[in-house]
Structure formats: C-alpha cells, structure tokens
Inverse folding.
C-alpha cells in the first residue's frame, strides 16, 4: 500500500506547483509538478531553491 503524502507550503510558479512533504525516512523533500494537461512532468528535490529553479526553467512541450 502506498504511503499517503501530505503536502505543505504550496507555491505556484506559472503552470508548476511546488510543495514540500516528509518521505518515509522523515526527511523533508520538495516536489515540483506541472499542472498543465497531458504534460506529466514532475521531480523531487532536496531543497526548495532547487525546486523553484526547476519550476522557473520548465517549458511544457504540450501545445
């Protein structure tokens, strides 16, 4: 059964939404997810600065 993830500190930069969560080991991680339809891009980062940089540089290939 997958773990339930509760996101905190949500931030939106363009179509990308950033939030932090605790992983199974209790460490705080940041996730960046594109909310555009059929884009499907997402990534996990160890710092919010890295997630914000990825969000600012993300370009959707969806037209």
């Amino acid at each position: 059964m997958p773990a339930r993830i509760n996101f905190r500190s949500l931030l939106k930069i363009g179509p990308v939404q950033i939030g932090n969560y605790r992983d199974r080991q209790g460490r705080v991680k940041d996730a960046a997810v594109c909310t555009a339809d059929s884009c499907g891009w997402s990534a996990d980062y160890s710092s919010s600065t890295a997630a914000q940089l990825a969000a600012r540089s993300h370009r959707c290939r969806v037209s």
User: Anything to note?
Assistant: The mean pLDDT is 86. Residues 48-57 form the longest helix (10 residues). The helical segments are 48-57.
